[in-house]
Specification:
By secondary structure, the chain is α/β, with parallel strands linked by helices. It has two domains: 200 residues, NAD(P)-binding Rossmann-like Domain (Rossmann fold); 224 residues, Rossmann fold. Helix content is 44%, strand content 13%. The strands form three sheets. It has a six-stranded parallel β-sheet, sandwiched between helices. Strand 10, helix 15 and strand 11 form a beta-alpha-beta unit. Helix 5 runs parallel beside helix 6. The longest helix is centred in the middle third of the chain and has 32 residues. The radius of gyration is 24 Å and the shape is elongated.
Amino acid sequence: MKISIIGTGYVGLVTGTCFAEMGNHVYCVDIIDEKINNLKNNIVDIYEPQLKELISSNQERGDLIFTTNLKESIENSDLYFIAVGTPMNDDGSCKLEYVYDVAHSIGKYINHDCFVITKSTVPVGTNNEIKKIIAEELAHRQVNYRVNIISNPEFLKEGSAISDCLRPDRIVIGADNDESFSIMEKLYEPFIRNSYNYIFMDINSAEMTKYAANAMLATKISFMNELAGICDKTGVDINEVRKGIGTDQRIGFNFIYAGCGYGGSCFPKDVNALIHIGQANNCPTNILQSVDIINKKSKMFIPNKIFKYFGDDLSGLEFGVWGLSFKPDTDDMREASSITIINALLEKGAVIKAYDPKALNNAKKIFGDDIIYCKNRFDVLNNSDALILITEWKEFRNPNFEVIKDKLNNPVIFDGRNQYDKKYLNELGFKYYQIGVSEDRI
């Protein structure tokens, strides 16, 4: 198939590359010259396992083309994927101007019947507006082409996006005619061999499905973090509670790990967008608002434990930080818990030394010269008064604790992801603080 992916951000780049991997002829379009030139030279500005290699091989094969020429790509494609950003406005609503700009361009340039597919996460009713905009542009040109509008939300997880895209657990397709369902089924046939993985629905329901999925996962996280706050005050270990409820098949273990809050480009934005959608339609959003509030409070769990241990004045104290990205296997620091935690400590006069396997360049854009950047995980420990674990990268899972103890001024660890065995660390002489574990259990 001939496909245009409009927008080479995270979703567009991964999606376009994976479509090309399956033998489709794919244009990936962006308005930023430098970005497109870099991609042509296999320079990728995001870290995602396998992505750079697949971009290189598909460009070499001629199936993946990076361009700023939107008109040419539209004229030479049959399926147009809108994959531009939909960032959050100050009021929590979804910013749609980039989506609508693309819709205007499609209406200006199409020269044949086509399919317009929205990958961007958008509120209910957005695809109806896209259809209207394109129709107005065609009317202005006094031409008539059949334009099928489709909602095809993405469910990619940063750090495993290539695998998610090549082997999806389900494909949600929102459309209003059989032709659209048929073309999408044909497109995804190489990815999915079982028909039950296709979920066909109307366009509005598909738009809501993406928000509902992310909001549900965010709710599970915030529920566990609120419970962790109670455990912290009542002599309970949230890790034991997690085992007790996770074995219930109705609940399961996914997304019930207590920690220092969620981040990234999706959960915070989509929860707030859904709150705004509810408010705009005069529907209460009590649970969703609580999810967002709890998440913000969760990011202060670690600073508050540090203040309790060292006092409110951290002047002269140094802290080593492991992990800056919002989750492992990505360099993405959007809404990362590390930002809140580090800023809270800097405000109290602390010196921060930080290490992350992939996110240091992005961290420098956020913190500048306010913190010290280290090249490996053990450098942050030298003369530090405590170690703070924020992101659970694999290289942090089983470190040499004797080396850690020897390097630190004080054998103290604050763990924002509850990675370690508290009994073992206590036996080694560490003061070990977790999320949702009462200090009288240490």
